[in-house]
Amino acid sequence: MIRRLYDIADAAARRRLVAYLALTAIAILLVSATLVLVIPLVRALFSADPTAAVPVIVAIAGTGLAALAVDMVSTVYGERSGAALILRMHEVIGERIMRLPIGWFDGERIGAISTLTSRGVAFAANAPNSFLRPVWQATAVPLIVAVAVVVVDPAVGAAMLLGGIAVVLVWSAVRRREGLLRLRSDEMNEAAGARVLEFASAQPAVRAAGPDSLAERAVREAVAAQRAATERVLSASNRGMALYDLVAYGTMLVVVGVLVWRTVQGGLDGPTAVALLILQVVATWFASHGLPFGEGIDTSNRTLAQIDRLMTAEVLPEPDTPAAPRDAGVAFADVTFGYLPEQPVLNGVSFEAPSGGMTAIVGPSGSGKSTIARLIARFVDVQAGSVRIGGVDVRELGTRATLAQVSVVFQDVYLFEDTLRENIRLGRPDADDAEVEEVARRAGVSEIADRLPDGLDTRVGESGGTLSGGERQRVSIARALLKDAPIVLLDEATAALDVESEALIQRGLAELAGRKTLIVIAHRLQTIRQAERIVVLDGRGGVEAVGDHATLLATSPSYARFWTERSGTLDWRIDAG
Ligand SMILES: Nc1ncnc2c1ncn2[C@@H]1O[C@H](COP(=O)(O)OP(=O)(O)OP(=O)(O)O)[C@@H](O)[C@H]1O
Known about the structure:
577 residues, alpha/beta, ABC transporter transmembrane region fold, Rossmann fold, four-stranded antiparallel sheet, 12 strands
C-alpha cells in the first residue's frame, strides 16, 4: 500500500510520507528499547546493590519520553502526508475524469466515483497513520523484543519469535478471509441500496401494483441477501478474533512453559526470568492491538485498486495539434458504433448536416438518435467510419476542440446548487452579467426569474428541484445561446410541456436557427417541419431516408407513417383537451 501511495503522491506528499515512515520506525525502535531495558532494570533491582537500577530507570525514562515525542511528531507528519495525499488523489482522479470519454460515465460508475472521492480517498490517504501504524506496532514491537530476548536466552527468545510469527500469520489469514467476505457484503449493500432507491423512486407504480409487487419482492430479497452477507462477515470476524486470541495467549503459555523449564534447569536466574515474563505479557498486549485495524487496511486497499482501475480505463486518443474545422457542417461517413462492440447501434450510417442549416433526426425509440448526438460531441468514438465537423474527423479535432464547436441542449439538464444566473453562466464562465441577462431574456428564462423571489439570483438546483422540465430546458437553451458555439445539438423533450414552455422553447429554437448548425433530435411536428433536412433512422442501425418534409412524405413510407401517427396523437390530444 505504501508503494502505491508513494506512486500517487507528488514531491511534497512524498517527503512527508518518507519522514512519517522514518519517524514511525524510530518510534517503534525506541518503544522496543524501552521494553528491553526492563531486563537490566529487574536484574539491578534484585541485585546486591539495587541503586544500580537508577541509571537504568533514567535510560527507560529517556527512551520512553523520546518514543512519545517521536511518535507525536510522526503523527503530525502522518496527518500532513494524509492531507497532501487527499489533495493529490482528488487531483489525479479529477484529471483522469476530465480525460475519460463522457460515454464512460454510466450511473454505476458515477456512484462508485462518488464513494471513492468521498469516503475512499480519505480512508486510503490516512491509512498509514490510522491503520498501518497500530498494525506495525502490534507486529514489530513483539518481534524486535523477541530478537533481543534471543540474545539473553536463545530458547525463550526462539519461543517468543516463533509465537510472534504464528500470531502474524494467523492475523493475515483471518484478515484475508474477512476481507473477501466484506467485499461480497459491500456488493450486497450496493445492490440493496439500488433496489431501495428504485423502490422509493417508483412509488406510484409500486402502489398501483398493490402488495407483494415485483419491486417489493426485489427489495425484500436484496435486503435478506445483504443481512446474510453482513452476518457472515460478523461471524467470520468473531471467529477470527477468537482464533487470534487463542494463538496469542497460547503463545504466551508456551513461552511461560519454556521460561519455567529454563529456570528449573538452571539456565535462567530468577530476576531475568521475571523480566522475560513481564516482556512476554507486554508483547502479547501489543500484539492483541493489531487485528481491529485490518478492516481499515482492506477498505484502503480497495480504494487504491479502484484508483488503479480508473487510471487504466481507456481514454480517447487526443491529437498533438488539433486540426481546424473549415465550417460548422457535420458529416457522418459509414459510421458503425455500439456500446458493446458486438451489438452495433448504428451500422454504416451516412448523412450530412450542412453548416448553418437545421437538421432533424427522427426514428423509433432506441434507433440511435441520442447516440448520434453523443458521437458528434465526441462523448464516445466510432468503431468504424468517421464523424466530421467542418471536414475534420473529430478524432483529429480532439475532445476539447470538438466540445468548443458544440453546444449541447439535452433533456436531462443538470442544475447546480447555485443561482439561476450562475447556472446560465456555466455556458461561458467569463460572460458578464449583462450577457447572462440578455440570453436569459432570449431563451425565456426571464419569465421564470420574474416569478422567483430574487429573480435571476434565486438559488435553484437539484435538491431545490424548483424548476419544471420545460423551465430547465429553457435554462439549457440560455446556456447554449451564451456559449455561442457554431453547432447546437438539441434533444427535444419527449414529455408534454406546458403551453408557455413549449412556446418559449420554440422561440429559443428560432433564435438559434439560421445562425447555427442546428441538429435536433426531434419529437415535435412543428420542429420537424421547420427542418431543412430530416434524417430518418430505420430502427435497425441504418438510415432509411434523408430529405425535407415534403419530399419524405412523398418518398419514404415509414416517414409518412411516422408523420400520420404523430399527427393523429396530436389531434387526439387537442380533441381530449
Ligand atoms: N450507455 C449505454 N450503454 C449501453 N447501451 C446504451 C447506452 N445508451 C444507449 N444504449 C442503447 O443504445 C440504443 C440506442 O439508444 P439511443 O438512446 O441512442 O436511442 P434513441 O433513438 O435516442 O432512443 P429514444 O428515442 O428512446 O431516446 C438503445 O438500444 C439503448 O438501449
